[in-house]
Amino acid sequence: LAAMGYADWGGGPRPESGHDHGSGEGEGPGEVAVADLVADPALTADVTAELVVRDEGDRVTVNGSTPGPLLRATEGDLVEVTLVNEDVADGATLHWHGVDVPNAADGVAGVTQDAVMPGEEFVYRFVAEQVGTYWYHSHQVSHEQVQQGLFGGLVVDPADPEPVDVDEVALVHRYGGAGTLNGAEGTTAIEAEPGDDVRLRVVNTDNGVATVWPAGVPFRVLAVDGTEVNGPDEVTGEAVAVPAGGRVDLGFTVPEEGVRVDFSGGTSLTVGSDPTGRRTPAPSTVVDLLHYGAPADPPFAVDDPDRRFDYVIDRRPGFLDGRPGMWWTVNGGLYPDVPMYMVEEGDVVVFEIDNRSSDAHPMHLHGHHGLVLSRDGEPATGSPWWVDSLEVGVGETYEVAVLADNPGVWMDHCHNLPHATEGLVAHLMYA
Ligand code: C2O
Ligand code: CU
């Protein structure tokens, strides 16, 4: 079976894509500095797309639909996306969630660019260096625009892919109350034959955690936040929790009777035939990534970091922008009176995230991936667990190591997006 993206389920058109530099020997992007590749307007992009955003009342659409088109690139491609704002009055941007793009392409209105106002456009360029599952969304009034639909999927395939029979993206989203997968409520059927290998890329575009559970079939967690899991274990009868903003790729082989995959929002996928005929109860056990998969050495030394930072989350009454209320605090301060985490390029930084509030927070750092070292003092013992979106439960403490290798000013905020609006925001800043 051919690989199918969600665009094949009736979404928008796929971008034009020509992977020409893969064939020419000696001309690969590895021989040119990435910054030059991105900045040189004379270089032709491998993947180009124009994304037109429009205000349709309770929805914001991208090329006439929500979610917007699935963008698909190959590792090493120069990606060029033009955002055209037709009439979104607040302006809009595109943030490449989980992709460690150059700072100027990060799409944070008010930080890396101005919002793109109605009638304006903006060109994003970056090299797709990280293989995996990502997504894009507006980062202007994002607690409204993302909820209303200004987002879409992004997949970067390896230059030398391993064959898979079925490759699907499932964007989890609630519009108002109703749960959807790629914009569709209820159950979506995916064609597959018994024996097919499936990679299911689950992207949580909501504000709360999404759980997903393949019923009856053993499965593996193949990747988390775009990074492949080392030596993934086979599990049966467990659920997988995907934090807001996070992605998990699941892998399984379709048995004779098919596979049913149920999601917490009331949606389901059937792959091949439907083995149960209806939703299955959510398993009570959730895969714990702290101990999942096989260990491997991290690519940088984490034992003796150059800097250690506290990121203590709490809540208290006060004034934010002159508005009285209960607001989130970082290290006791109300935004913008919160720390700038100052680093120098090359630093190994360990963040200790300590959630002392009575709500969970899916914390998202832009421009970098973090390696989870421990939770509540318990060391990570499984596969290196790389995150850009990490669910920090009530009372939990995580240590996360980050290599400061992407200069700029980067947001580090809660991806329960109303919480970010209520002050749960800090910045990582290069000296
Ligand atoms: Cu997906 Cu700062 O966001
Ligand atoms: Cu939060």
UniProtKB/TrEMBL annotation:
<keyword id="KW-0812">Transmembrane</keyword>
<dbReference type="GO" id="GO:0016491">
    <property type="term" value="F:oxidoreductase activity"/>
</dbReference>
<dbReference type="InterPro" id="IPR008972">
    <property type="entry name" value="Cupredoxin"/>
</dbReference>
<dbReference type="Pfam" id="PF07732">
    <property type="entry name" value="Cu-oxidase_3"/>
</dbReference>
<dbReference type="Pfam" id="PF07731">
    <property type="entry name" value="Cu-oxidase_2"/>
</dbReference>
<dbReference type="InterPro" id="IPR011706">
    <property type="entry name" value="Cu-oxidase_C"/>
</dbReference>
<keyword id="KW-1133">Transmembrane helix</keyword>
<dbReference type="InterPro" id="IPR045087">
    <property type="entry name" value="Cu-oxidase_fam"/>
</dbReference>
<dbReference type="GO" id="GO:0005507">
    <property type="term" value="F:copper ion binding"/>
</dbReference>
<dbReference type="InterPro" id="IPR002355">
    <property type="entry name" value="Cu_oxidase_Cu_BS"/>
</dbReference>
<keyword id="KW-0186">Copper</keyword>
<keyword id="KW-0560">Oxidoreductase</keyword>
<feature type="domain" description="Plastocyanin-like">
    <location>
        <begin position="328"/>
        <end position="429"/>
    </location>
</feature>
<keyword id="KW-0472">Membrane</keyword>
<keyword id="KW-0479">Metal-binding</keyword>
<dbReference type="InterPro" id="IPR011707">
    <property type="entry name" value="Cu-oxidase-like_N"/>
</dbReference>
<feature type="region of interest" description="Disordered">
    <location>
        <begin position="11"/>
        <end position="30"/>
    </location>
</feature>
<feature type="domain" description="Plastocyanin-like">
    <location>
        <begin position="58"/>
        <end position="159"/>
    </location>
</feature>
<protein>
    <submittedName>
        <fullName>Multicopper oxidase family protein</fullName>
    </submittedName>
</protein>
